[in-house]
Design brief:
- By secondary structure, the protein is an alpha+beta fold.
- It contains 16 helices and 35 strands.
- The strands form 8 sheets. A 7-stranded mixed sheet has the order 2-3-1-4-5-11-6, with helices on both faces. Strands 17-16-21-14-15-20 form a 6-stranded antiparallel sheet.
- Strand 4, helix 4 and strand 5 (127-132) form a beta-alpha-beta unit.
- Helix 6 packs across helix 7 and helix 6 crosses helix 8 (233-245).
- The longest helix has 18 residues, at 570-587.
- The chain is elongated.
């Protein structure tokens, strides 16, 4: 069994295409875990191995691997950085002891990184920043470090300085040991050397800042620093470790993942200064009696784990992936405290890229998987037994922000929806709903790319095509005026005829739904026929007179009529009611209604004006504003038709810094010029449908 004090669970985090996977590949190669340096661009990465990831050259799933470095077991979780897949990153960060933020030295810090950095800071997650791609043209270590300091919610401290720049980068200066570490070939190895003379001033300046940061984490070190003006290497290390463990200090180092420069020094920092599971706070949960309980992350505690990902493997079946927080898991069963059931499993695995390596036991900090569980899903807590059960609070998935109608070839609908249901188990951000009015099945997710990837997976795994189309807007119709009309149905066909005659008064009933009032005096329409008039009106309301949309918020009074002793029937009066409604609706100033949604938009102060201007262009209305420590919160209402693609547009407007939620609000009248276009388009569609 491994030594828990030498376990490191690390999530690589950063915006899309910042170099996370390339850095992780370099770390694996340097650690001797792989025999070649995998490349995202070449499509031979051992972490981005999914067909969709290879074709898109981006991480879609959290990828898992492990390596051994100086007797430490390092578990790497390479997370996606694209907005479409950030829930994967949130769940991965929740089960790791260290966040390794990867910053591209050639590009600004993007919104996704800011959002994830806020999350890491809120959770006091120990963090290391690796400024990468330093051997690229226009790479600037110091500019990137300034951006980190000015934009991200961390207190960064530079612990390495690059030697040389762009393609002339040839090593780093370790500010703690005051040694130059020169790159030796492409295997990640380093050789010690003297610090270049032209860097001595910079080294002195940044080492002074490093010492101050290390001292600030310990009162004794502060006193020592004030008295002597410096600290020993051992004291610097002690101060750094304390600050890192408390997430008060964030070291910044210099690397290039693509060409494997500096990864050995990076691994040294992770293993020497960053916490093991034993150093992390006790986990908090709820016991079987509903009381709060704390459990240390130690070997001698009862086994406790959290399921943070479920995925389908073509060979092993459904894989359940979880982090062990406390205790040792051995044997072939555990207790699912969330669902209160026992589960048996065949084999424990450690994931290494697309391969699974069997292990006999798992301890704190380990990321492991089991196959083919019956009840367990993402977010469940696993425990040793019912007697030691506690339920941990899993992270909340992001709410879906965009919806598309899904369809497939005729005859394959059942297969498609069964496939989507399987995908819902793997991806907690997906929602499947049915829009009653439009009769469309809607799949909701984090963006169009997200849903396209889901479709590709369904095609590959289940052999069925999933087509996406823009959802139809569930327009409604109502009236703004009044009308009194007759509806008469009279038919003679040689035998018994049909006769139904009714007079109705139609008026608006704003917000009141449909209301039918029987005002018949005497027996001009027998009692048994009056409900048929009501039914005929309600059926006619399903297709309004303007564009065939359902009619809402009207009041109908049945005021007069006549009947025939022989020819009258419920069916005749039902037809009469339908005719009366259609005629009355034409006369009562019919109007088209559209759904409005409530929007809560979180955006940084810099982009508030852009967002509000954009809302105005979408016929939106700002209902109020609020703010918190990090962002401005805009509460608005807008027509649903105008915000179908808002997720993509908001990302473009704010550089990924904005987020929003949407809920249905109410219906409002469509402006006349827009209504005319909708009615004309609807007429063309109805003609085409026959």
């Amino acid at each position: 069994m491994q030594d828990t004090s030498k376990v490191r669970a690390i999530a690589l985090i950063g915006h899309g295409r910042c170099g996370k996977t390339s850095l992780a590949e370099a770390m694996l190669f340097t650690g001797g875990k792989t025999s070649r340096l995998g490349s995202v661009d070449a499509g031979n990465s051992c972490l981005d191995y999914d067909d969709e990831e290879i074709s898109r050259q981006m991480s879609i799933n959290t990828a898992f691997h492990r390596l051994t470095w100086k007797k430490h077991d390092v578990y790497l979780l390479d997370t996606p950085g694209d907005d479409n897949f950030l829930t994967e990153t949130i769940f991965a960060a929740a089960v790791c002891d260290t966040a390794l933020f990867v910053i591209d030295a050639t590009l600004p810090v993007k919104g996704q990184t800011v959002r994830l950095a806020d999350m890491a800071r809120e959770k006091n997650l120990p963090t290391l920043i690796a400024i990468t791609k330093l051997d690229r043209e226009r790479a600037d270590f110091f500019a990137a470090a300034r951006e980190v300091k000015n934009i991200l919610p961390f207190k960064p401290v530079i612990v390495q300085l690059p030697i040389g720049s762009e393609d002339k980068m040839r090593g780093v200066v370790d500010l703690i040991s005051q040694k130059a570490l020169l790159f030796d070939g492409d295997k990640g190895t380093l050789t010690e050397n003297d610090i270049p003379a032209d860097m001595l001033d910079d080294v002195a300046l940044y080492r002074e800042q490093l010492i101050e940061s290390a001292a600030e984490n310990d009162d004794e070190l502060v006193e020592r620093f004030l008295e002597e003006g410096s600290l020993s290497e051992e004291e610097i290390i002690a101060g750094l470790r304390k600050g890192i463990g408390e997430a008060a200090v964030v070291p910044v180092c210099a690397v290039s993942g693509l060409r494997n420069k500096g990864t050995a020094a990076l691994l040294d920092i992770l293993c020497d200064y960053f916490p093991s599971p034993l150093d992390r706070p006790a986990i908090e949960g709820i016991d079987g009696q509903g009381s709060a309980i704390m459990r240390p992350c130690a070997d001698d505690q009862p086994f406790t784990g959290l399921v943070f990902k479920t995925m389908a493997d073509p060979y092993a079946g459904r894989l359940t992936i979880f982090r062990v927080f406390s205790g040792i898991l051995q044997g072939d069963s555990f207790y699912n405290a969330t669902r209160q059931v026992s589960e048996r499993f065949g084999q424990l695995f450690v994931l290494e890229g697309k391969e699974q390596k069997p292990v006999d036991a798992a301890g704190p900090g380990m990321i492991v998987a089991v196959a083919k569980l019956k009840e367990t899903v993402t977010g469940d807590t696993l425990c040793a037994s019912q007697q030691t059960a506690m339920v941990l609070t899993p992270p909340a998935p992001l709410e879906p922000v965009i919806s598309f109608a899904v369809s497939t070839k005729k005859g394959e609908e059942e297969k498609l929806f069964a496939s989507i249901t399987r995908m819902l188990d793997e991806d907690l951000t997906l929602r499947l709903t049915r829009e009653q009015q439009t009769k469309q099945v809607l799949l909701s997710g984090m963006g169009k790319v997200h849903l396209e990837v889901v479709g590709s997976r369904i095609k590959r795994k289940f052999g069925v095509d999933m087509e996406l189309s823009e959802p139809k807007i569930p327009y409604m119709e109502t009236i703004r005026g009044k009308a009194r009309v007759q509806g008469k149905h009279k038919k003679q066909s040689g035998g018994r005829g049909q006769y139904g005659d009714c007079w109705i008064e139609l008026s608006a009933n704003p917000g009141g739904g449909y209301e039918f009032i029987d005002q018949i005096v005497g027996g001009v329409i027998p009692q048994q026929y009056r409900p048929a008039v009501d039914k005929g009106i309600q059926e006619a309301m399903e297709r309004g007179v303007l564009a065939g949309y359902p009619v809402i918020d009207i009041k109908v009074a049945l005021v007069d009529g006549s009947f025939h002793n022989v020819d009258s029937s419920e069916m005749a009066f039902k037809v009469a009611g339908s005719l009366a409604f259609k005629k009355a609706a034409q006369e009562a100033k019919p109007v088209l209604l559209e759904p409005y949604v409530n929007m809560t938009i979180n955006v940084d102060k810099e982009h508030v004006g852009d967002v509000m201007g954009d809302l105005n262009s979408r016929r939106g209305k700002v209902m109020g504003m609020d703010s918190d420590a990090k962002s401005e919160i805009i509460n608005a209402q807008a027509p649903q038709a105008e915000v179908l693609s808002y997720a993509t547009d908001l990302t473009s407007m704010t550089g990924g810094l904005g987020s929003f939620t949407v809920t249905f609000s109410h219906y409002e009248e469509v402006p006349a010029q827009i209504a005319d276009k909708i009615i004309a388009a609807r007429a063309a569609d109805m003609k085409e449908e026959g």
